[in-house]
Each structure stands twice: as C-alpha cells, then as structure tokens.
TrEMBL record, chain A:
Acyl-CoA dehydrogenase/oxidase C-terminal domain location: 227-384
Keywords on record: FAD, Flavoprotein, Oxidoreductase
Annotated ranges, domain Acyl-CoA oxidase/dehydrogenase middle: 121-205
Cofactor: FAD
Organism name: Streptomyces venezuelae
Name the record gives this protein: Acyl-CoA dehydrogenase
Record-stated family: Belongs to the acyl-CoA dehydrogenase family.
Acyl-CoA dehydrogenase/oxidase N-terminal domain residues: 35-117
GO molecular function (one): flavin adenine dinucleotide binding
TrEMBL record, chain B:
Annotated protein name in UniProt: Acyl-CoA dehydrogenase
One Gene Ontology term of the molecular function aspect: flavin adenine dinucleotide binding
Alphabetical list of Gene3D superfamilies matching this protein: Acyl-CoA dehydrogenase/oxidase, N-terminal domain (1.10.540.10), Butyryl-CoA Dehydrogenase, subunit A, domain 3 (1.20.140.10)
Cofactor: FAD
Organism: Streptomyces venezuelae
Alphabetized UniProt keyword annotations: FAD, Flavoprotein, Oxidoreductase
Annotated ranges, domain Acyl-CoA dehydrogenase/oxidase C-terminal: 228-368
Highest taxon, organism lineage: Bacteria
Ranges of residues in domain Acyl-CoA dehydrogenase/oxidase N-terminal: 22-114
Family, as annotated: Belongs to the acyl-CoA dehydrogenase family.
PANTHER family linked: ACYL-COA DEHYDROGENASE, ACYL-COA DEHYDROGENASE FADE28
Amino acid sequence: MSATPPTPPTSPTAAELTARTREFLAAHPPADTDRATFLRARFDAGLAWVHYPEGLGGLAASRTLQAVVDAELEAAGAPDNDPRRIGIGLGMAAPTILAYGTEEQKQRFLRPLWVGEEVWCQLFSEPGAGSDLAALGTRAVRDGDTWVVDGQKVWTSSAHTARWAILIARTDPDLPKHQGITYFLCDMTDPGVEVRPLRQITGEAEFNEVFLTGVRIPDSHRLGAVGQGWEVARTTLMNERVSIGGMRIPREGGMIAPVAAAWRARPELRTHALHDRLLTLWTEAEVARLAAERLRQQLAAGRPGPEGSGMKLTFARLNQEISGLEVELLAEEGLLYGDWTMRRPELVDFTGRDAGYRYLRAKGNSIEGGTSEVLLNIVAERVLGLPSEPRDDKDLPWKDLAR
Amino acid sequence: MTASTASAASAASAAPADLLYSDTEDELRAAVRSLLADRSSPAAVLARLEQDRPYDPELWNTLATGIGAAGLLVPEKLGGQGASHREAAVVLEELGRSVTPAPYLTSAVVATEILLACAPASPGATALLGELAAGRTVCVPALPLTLGPGGPLPAGPPTAPVAAVADAAAAHTFLVLADSGLYAVPAAEATRADRTPLDLTRPLATVTPHPGAGTLLADPATARHAVRRGLLAGAGLLASEQLGLADWCLTETVGHLRTRHQFNRPVGSFQALKHRLAQLWLDVASARAAARAAADALATGAADTELVVSVAQAYCSGVAVRAAEECVQLHGGIGMTWEHPAHLYLKRAKADSLALGTAAHHRTRLAALADLPSP
Ligand SMILES: Cc1cc2nc3c(=O)[nH]c(=O)nc-3n(C[C@H](O)[C@H](O)[C@H](O)COP(=O)(O)OP(=O)(O)OC[C@H]3O[C@@H](n4cnc5c(N)ncnc54)[C@H](O)[C@@H]3O)c2cc1C
C-alpha cells in the first residue's frame, strides 16, 4: 500500500503494522487458537480497528492501515468477527460510544461489541418518527439514579438477536424537538423490553417492533449529556450512512456478481437489450466502487461528514437496478422465489439467496438508514449549501407539533 | 378478427381508436369493482395467500357467471356475452387494481382467444368455449408465462414438461401446444408441480401431460396460428391489468402522503415528492391511453394491432413497476412490511413485466413493425 496518505508522525507505519501483525500471529497461531480467544487477543493487541485509541482495540493509526492488518490476517487464515452479524454495533454504536462515552462505558462495551459477543441494535425509529426522527415520542423520566422509559420503536433490525441497544428518548417535551432528546444504552434483557417480529416484504422478519414499558435504565448508561441526544444521534446517523454505503468491495463484488456470473454461464439468456443494460450497470457499479474508495481515502483521517450520504444513495439505486435486471435476465426462473417461510435471520445475506430475494430486499436500501429522499435533501443542503425548505418545526415545543 | 401482418405500412395508423370508456364499460367496471371491494380487498388477498389458498372459487364464480365476465370475448351464438376486448380490458384493470388471484388473463383471455381461432372448425374447441363462457370450466394454456407474441413457440411431443405455467392450480383443462397440434388435456391427466412464485397472486407450476392424454383440437398450422393470436390478445390486455395496478399504487401513495406527517407537515407537501407524483400521474395517464389503444385495436381488428399491442406492452410494464416501486419507497418503512399490501403490487408488477414478453421483447418487435431496423 504505497498510496496511503501521510499519517501523523506518532502513529505506526504500514511496515510497523505488518511486523506487529506477524508477531501477533506467531503468538496466537489461528490453527491452534479458538475463535473467541483469538478475537479477544486481537482486540487487546490493538489490531481490531487500528484507528481506535490504544487500550480500546486500536493503535491510534490511520484508518486506511486497517487493510494492511486485514490482509496479513486473511493470508494466515485467521477467523474474523463476522462484521455482517454485528454491523449495527460496529458501524453505529461503536463510533458513538467512542465519541461520547465515559471511560467506563468505552471499557465496558467496545471489546464484547467488536468480538461479537454482544450484538447491538438501534432503537431509533418510531411509528410516528421515521424521516423526522427528532419528532420521536418515547419518554424517559428521571427517577433518582435511573430513567424510566416508555414508548414504542419500530423497524428495529436485529432486535431479536441483540444484547444491547442504542436508544434515543424524549426527556423534555416542553423544549423544541431537537433539544429535549437524550441518548441511552439499553439492556435488551431488561424487564419491560418486548420484541415482536415484524414480517417484511421478503417473507422473513429481519426487523421488529420493540415495546418499552417501564424499562429502567441506570443513569450510568446515558451517553452524552441530558438533552444532548440529537447531537449524539447525528454522529450515529453519519456513521450509519458511511457504514451502509462504504463497505470495501472488490471489483465485481456485491450485487453485480451474480448477474455477471449468470451472464457468463448461460448464453441462452443473453439478448442485446439486456447486454446494454448489464454493461451500463457494470460500469456504474465499478465507478461507485471507486468513488466509495476515494471517499474512504478522503475521510480516512477525519470523521464522516454529509458526503457519506452520497455513497449510500448510489448503492441503494444500483442495488435496486441491478437486482431488477437479474430477475429479468433469469426469465422463467426470475418468476420464481426461493422460500416465503417466515424466518428470523441472524444476518442479511444478499448473495446467499435468490434473485427475487435480492430484488425485494434491495427495496429497503433506499429506506433504511435514512431514505434516499431525505439523503438527497442532506446533500443539497449540507454539501451544496442550498437553502432548506421553509420549516416551522425547529422552534416549537415538541408537544405542540402536528402528528 | 385477423391480426395484421408485420409491415412498415402498419406503422401509419388509420382512423383514431376510441380511447375512452363507454357507458357499458363504466357499468361493468362498477359491478366488478364493487364485487372485488367486497370480496377481494388487499387484506383479504393477503389472508388467503397466507393460508395457501390464493384463489377464491366463489369469487370466481360470481365474476365469471354472475357478472358474466368469463364469456365477454365469446360470441353469443357460442354461449358467451359477445362483447369485446374493450370490456375484458376493464375487468383486467379492476383485477390489477386489487391484485386478485384469478385465472382471468389466462383462461378468459389467452385460452379463450386460442379456442376462438380453432372454432367452429373444431367441435372440441367450440364445446370448450361454451363451458368457458358459462363459467363451468377454467382452461389454462400450458405455455410459459414469459412467452410473448412473436416468441419461439414450444414444439415437441405433447408430453413435454412446460415450466412457469400461470394459474395451473386453478385449471380444469390445459391447452397443450405440441408439434402434432393443439390438445385439450384435463387437469387430471397431467402432472402439476407447483413452484414458489415471486408473485404469490399468480401461482406458477410446471405442467407435464401424461402420455396419450387429452383430445386433439387443431392441426399444427391452426394450432400455431391460434396460440399466436392468444398471446397477442394476452399481451394487449395485460397492459390493462398493469394500468389498474399502477393506478392503485398512485392513488394509494397520494392518499398516504396527504395524511402522513413528518417535520410538522404532510409529507406530500414537499416539492421533491410532489413533482415525482405528478410525473407518475403523467405516466399512468399515458399508460391508460396505450392500454386503451391496445384493447380497442384488438376489439376492432385494426390493421396495426400488433404494433399497438407492442407499444402498450413496451410502455405499461415499466410504468407498473415504477408505480409499485414508488409505492413501496414513499410508504417508507411501512412499505417494506408484509402487513401493508404494497409488496403484493410490487411482486405482481415485476412478474407482469416478464409476462407475455418483456418491454425489451416488444421494443424488438417494434423495430420490425415500425420499420426501424437494428444497426
Ligand atoms: C429494512 C429496514 C431496516 C430498518 N432498520 C432500522 C433499525 O434497525 N433501527 C431503526 O431505528 N430504524 C430502522 N429502520 C427504519 C428507517 O430508518 C425508517 O423507515 C426511515 O427513516 C423512514 O422513515 P418512515 O418509515 O417513517 O418513512 P416516512 O418518514 O413516513 O417517509 C415516507 C416517505 O416520505 C419521504 N419523505 C419524508 N420526509 C421527506 C422530505 N422532507 N422530503 C422529501 N421526502 C420526504 C420519505 O423519503 C419516504 O419516501 C429500518 C427500515 C427498513 C426499511
């Protein structure tokens, strides 16, 4: 990796990281070390996410150098922490805890999160508060050292496998909506937390409804100051967009892979019209991959900004167009579906299932983590600096908003 | 009615088609809509699907005999209503609007057209038409749903398995096209392997007739001509189903966005969404013209029928898919749930876009029909 940007002088270089990873591998040969032990040791050696601080799974290195470590580990056949299964923890909870957590919170939560011993979910959206997340109505009322939480969340991915949740709740209904919100870490095993499967378009129940009734959260599990919840949540949301749109994929990785494979293997399916669309989408997928890589390099040192929304927009559109093309390419087979059984999957695996599943699941890509319409507004307003539409909801007390 | 032959001349249209709805058609629509509103609301459709009973035989019975919809294309002297494709199109609009699982397109349109092309020379076909028109029989062509007019017709022994046959589960009789002619095969004399369809409202199966099953209805040449005619009518009227589907999606989405509040105002008041819905309305209005033109051309036997049908299919497939995709998207998280019917429309729209020839297939046909050859 000669093309990495310059890194601060104190942080390790690529060569140092390679050496360090090899030393670590020598001390913990993957073949003779059980998975959990290996992953915990890797965290403690600072090789989990190298850009995190020392003592918290990192070495305060440049974010881009993670690739150096990953390549060494992969070559040695080391187990990984299955980032797909713990995506919300890695992509959203962790950076937020890192930015706003107390020392105790960071020590308590980051290691089991990264190792995958504790899965996280995100209790943000509510039936009445989706795009307008700051309008949420779940209440948290202080009672001495604890908070008592009542409300309903919806579309909560992985709530059925999660041990912990990031949660935002209203702590002051008399303030304007953005000011009366506080951010908590919620124990999903606590009394009063009820998770009900919510079946979706694909037939399975990947997301859930979550009912919170008198749930008691200790004040030590508050993240950030009382009333600072929206600011904290914005960190989560920025990271969410980057983590959804910003996964590093190889050329012809992702949704285009099965279409390209079917095209090569099955000449009888080919038509001129499909060919032109395939090549157009193949090119767009490759360019999107490069643009995501470029954005990653740009952001390597800093924090994610509104630019991350752009990549999520592109991937949502491409995933939908490519999976739509795949259904059409398969002709008679495209009319079929693998399985409508209602299941509660542990992870969302696009490539492991059929074209119809991909087509339907990809429809969520432009809704989850902020809809494409809302992200376009963000690009227009925060990247391009265009004025926002007239708004009357910013200064009104939350309790006086129209619902 | 004779379908026009492909020629550059057919690109020029003659007298303008009647693209409006007649009073009779409006009455028929009202009857079908109120029946479907009663018995086939999206919630009722979903409930039946979840119990693996997509078809409602009583509903079919009322539609076929009570309203007389099954025999619309069948002349009165053969026991039918002696109406036309224009009326059948209106029925399909309503079936599309409600995504009702019913073998209407397959039995009352494609199979009926095939049989009409064989009768009266074929007593078997004539008899079957009477049964169909009386709503006593559901007759389904054993053809892949993806086959469009001008596509390669299956040729082989009558026992060859056919994949992706729509509505096979509802059929009493299959029409089987073989190199030796067209056969009417009772459902009991064929093996039916149900597949799991993307569109649960139009079930699919692989159908394999038993050796020696059925009766010969037509010789090979008549059979192939008849099937082509069936596919042409099917493709033309599918546009009306797609129109009805798109229209529901638009109406439903507009309704939702008028009442759903985010940011202290109705979501539909955001200009970004208003413009999109206005564009979709334009697309649906255009689709209506295209679908009406196809129905009218089929009804009048216009010289440019093949062209008008391909225009309708090349256009309406895309509008229906886009309308359903917009419906899911603009309902936000609700649109991704199983409880909300948006997914039924999306699945039907996508499957419809593959049925009876894709938009690309019909554009390719237009290259010849409108004399716009490829490079
Ligand atoms: C598969 C999936 C997984 C999810 N997982 C989670 C999760 O784990 N945790 C969680 O908290 N949430 C989750 N969500 C919820 C998701 O974040 C919300 O669905 C999303 O923010 C949209 O909110 P809504 O559904 O209320 O739609 P609404 O806000 O009602 O939006 C309806 C439509 O209006 C549009 N719209 C709204 N405002 C504007 C505007 N100002 N300008 C233009 N258009 C606008 C929207 O884009 C949308 O198309 C998930 C959703 C899905 C589909």
